[in-house]
C-alpha cells in the first residue's frame, strides 16, 4: 500500500507542476501580447513565480520518495 501511496504522490506532484507552469506561462505570454514594452519586468516576475510553483511539487516528490521507500510512515 505504501508503494501505491508514494507513486500517487509523485504522479500528482508532476501533474500539478505541469499545470502550474502551463498556466503561468500562458498568462506571461498574454501579458507580453498586451504590453510588449513590459516584457523585461514580466520576465523577472515570471521567473520568481516559476520558483514558487516548482517548490511545492519538489517537496511533494521528496515526501513521495520517502514514503515509497518506507522511510516515513
From TrEMBL:
Q: Which GO terms describe its cellular component?
A: plasma membrane; proton-transporting ATP synthase complex; proton-transporting two-sector ATPase complex, proton-transporting domain
* Residues in V-ATPase proteolipid subunit C-like domain copies: 4-66
Its membrane topology: Multi-pass membrane protein
Keywords from the named record? ATP synthesis, Cell membrane, CF(0), Hydrogen ion transport, Ion transport, Lipid-binding, Membrane, Transmembrane, Transmembrane helix, Transport
Q: Does the keyword Cell inner membrane apply?
A: no
Top-rank lineage group of the source organism: Bacteria
Family annotation (Pfam families): ATP-synt_C (PF00137)
Residue ranges of the TM segments = 6-25, 46-72
Q: Which GO terms describe its molecular function?
A: lipid binding; proton-transporting ATP synthase activity, rotational mechanism
Task: Give the UniProt subcellular location, in the record's own words.
Answer: Cell membrane
Q: Where is this site: Reversibly protonated during proton transport?
A: 54
User: What are the boundaries of the signal sequence?
Assistant: none
Q: What does this protein do?
A: F(1)F(0) ATP synthase produces ATP from ADP in the presence of a proton or sodium gradient. F-type ATPases consist of two structural domains, F(1) containing the extramembraneous catalytic core and F(0) containing the membrane proton channel, linked together by a central stalk and a peripheral stalk. During catalysis, ATP synthesis in the catalytic domain of F(1) is coupled via a rotary mechanism of the central stalk subunits to proton translocation.
Annotated HAMAP family? ATP_synth_c_bact (MF_01396)
Family stated for the protein in its record: Belongs to the ATPase C chain family.
Identification of the protein by name: ATP synthase subunit c
Amino acid at each position: 500500500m505504501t508503494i501505491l501511496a508514494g507513486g500517487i504522490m509523485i504522479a500528482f506532484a508532476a501533474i500539478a507542476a505541469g499545470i502550474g507552469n502551463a498556466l503561468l506561462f500562458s498568462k506571461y505570454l498574454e501579458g507580453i501580447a498586451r504590453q510588449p514594452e513590459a516584457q523585461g519586468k514580466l520576465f523577472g516576475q515570471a521567473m520568481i513565480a516559476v520558483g514558487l510553483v516548482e517548490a511545492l511539487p519538489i517537496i511533494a516528490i521528496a515526501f513521495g520518495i520517502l514514503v515509497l521507500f518506507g522511510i516515513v510512515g
